[in-house]
Amino acid sequence: MFRVLVSDKLGTAGLEMLEKAADADYDMKTGLSKEELLAIMPEYDALIIRSGTQADADVLAAGKKLKVVGRAGIGVDNIDIPAATAQGIVVMNTPGSNSIATAEQTMTLMLAVSRHTVPAHNSLAAGEWNRAQFVGVELHGKVLGIVGFGRIGRLVAERAKAFGMTVLAHDPYVKAEDAAKLGVSLVSLDRVFSQADYLTLHTAVTPQTTKMINRPALKKMKNGVIIINVARGKLIDEAALAEALQEGPVKAAALDVYTSEPPAADNPLIDLSNVLHTPHLGASTVEAQRNVATQIVSQVLDCLRGVETRNAVNKPS
Ligand code: MLT
Known about the structure:
Blueprint: E1 2-6, H1 12-20, E2 24-28, H2 34-40, E3 46-49, H3 57-62, E4 68-71, H4 81-87, E5 90-92, H5 99-114, H6 117-125, E6 143-147, H7 151-162, E7 166-170, H8 176-181, E8 185-186, H9 189-195, E9 198-201, H10 215-219, E10 225-229, H11 238-247, E11 250-255, E12 275-277, H12 286-304
Parallel strand pairs: 1-2, 1-3, 3-4, 4-5, 6-7, 6-9, 7-8, 9-10, 10-11, 11-12
Helix pairs in contact: 1-12, 5-7
Bound molecules: D-malate.
D-malate (MLT) binds near residues 74 and 98.
């Protein structure tokens, strides 16, 4: 019998699949401390997580029987991939399963920050009727700069074009002709920075992209740019962005992700009135959670059974 530990909240549809599996037994234990997790890891053949569990080298080493770590979602920055690879553990994610939710969250934030939706709501709820204070700007006719033109970046581009935006994208791994098919110009990062009225990030955190939105990058940006980040907080130097939101050139930002989550009490972005915040809700739709849960459970079970290994992000030795 395979033993599976689910250590972050997982959609019911995925848990039902585990329930029905005749050859697998699962425990769902969320909110464990590192010590608690280390203590139980030796019992399990598979670990299924979202972004809450830190599958670091210690946790993986404690998994004496561990064969596979399944990430219900896309980002694998909470898993020590080299340590897993060295230990022969497969790490897999579910690319595509929550891309629409994330693209829609990007559009939600772009629109809401442009039209002052949250402050306008708060003002009305406080008994005011203040129309003059909340004059917004339109997406139509503006330039959207997309950094990272993978699945989510492309879905955002399609939606932005429907709003009448001109879309520029930067991605060193994409061919210009593929972008052109979607009516998007693939350009240098500097050109994205200098021409975008809206800048949205859809790239993974790597040594090259960590804090890519830093002081020098912000200096290259257009006056009045609006920055959206639903990818990862570590892509942004938060102190530099806070400065740019107060002194220019950044007019506003909408952030779903933070360097540490929840954001630290002294995070310089939290109290700024020109920032719209959400608590990492990019993938938080009923549909996306059902998709990631069923997809990861099916992949993990197939991997344990030796049927097939899908969406592995490493090649274990
Ligand atoms: C992802 O990487 O899939 C999203 O950021 C959502 C999540 O972390 O659960």
